[in-house]
Amino acid sequence: MSTSPYMLPEKARHQDAPSHGLSINDMFPTAIPHSAGATTAVLQPLTAKMKTEHVNFYYGKFQALHDISLEFASNKVTALIGPSGCGKSTFLRTLNRINETLRDTRLEGSITLDGENILDKDVTEIRRRIGMVFQRPNPFPKSIYDNIIYGPKINGMLKGKNAAEIVEKSLRRAALWDEAKDKLHESAYALSGGQQQRLCIARALAVDPEMLLLDEPCSALDPIATAKIEDLLVGLKSQCTIVIVTHNMQQAARVADTTGFFLLGRLIEHAKTDIIFKNPSKKETEDYITGRFG
Prior knowledge:
- By secondary structure, the chain is an alpha/beta fold.
- Helices cover 32% and strands 26% of the residues.
- It contains 12 helices and 13 strands.
- It has helices at 10-13, 24-27, 88-94, 123-129, 144-154, 163-173, 177-180, 193-205, 223-236, 249-255, 273-278, 283-289, and strands at 20-21, 30-33, 41-44, 48-59, 62-73, 77-81, 105-113, 116-117, 130-133, 211-215, 241-245, 258-263, 266-272.
- The strands form 3 sheets. It has a 7-stranded mixed beta sheet with strand order 1-13-12-6-11-10-9, sandwiched between helices. The chain has a 4-stranded antiparallel beta sheet with strand order 5-4-7-8, with helices on one face.
- Helix 5 crosses helix 6 (163-173), helix 5 packs parallel to helix 8 and helix 6 (163-173) crosses helix 8.
- The chain is globular and about 55 Å long.
- The model is unreliable at 1-20 and 30-44 (pLDDT under 50).
């Protein structure tokens, strides 16, 4: 049996691979009138909320990410896809410095939020501005109310604010208010799996993050709960910039404005989602999308 080029021994896996990163202005050119009554148009630049430039990441001596440069447009949803072990979750965790909690790791390159290097900022501030939701729901062993109010409380955001209003606003933003409003002081564990995941999203939203990172948030959920999460993400992008890691290519096609394809620790291609799925420019992307591997 021949060996797949995507399953080479570890040392051979990290050969130079083409990177196809486009700027957000390449992907989202917005025409606006040049002058009153004129038919010509100029391009309105879109703002990059976050940029990564030449990011390399190491677990000890093992290099998990190779030269990742990527832009995330404000108020857009970016999906990261690729086979298991390709580095997409590792990359996601670098965006709010969660990987710093792991021993013997090293990050090279720059990650900027609104033009400022996040590595130069207080890590607590960064994690407030960039919320994170993990693969499996992880509510605190507290009431629904206390789960939501925990973040604002430890971040000193309750001064002059009504805690009850924050709880209601957060649950409404997470499309959970109608289901939870009559049991706010009951244990969060009494909620279903899908409701617990929306509670975790509400908890992240309670501190008004500028970005929301989600690492396969629907992998443990049934189709009905998954649909609710997807509808929620589409609605939330008007309020914050969203990055989602998913194994579900149909999910990426449904919710994402742009999609990045990762393979063997490299960003192979990043483009508008419909281009990635209908007319990818890289053979590796086409092979993965069409099910030849992965």
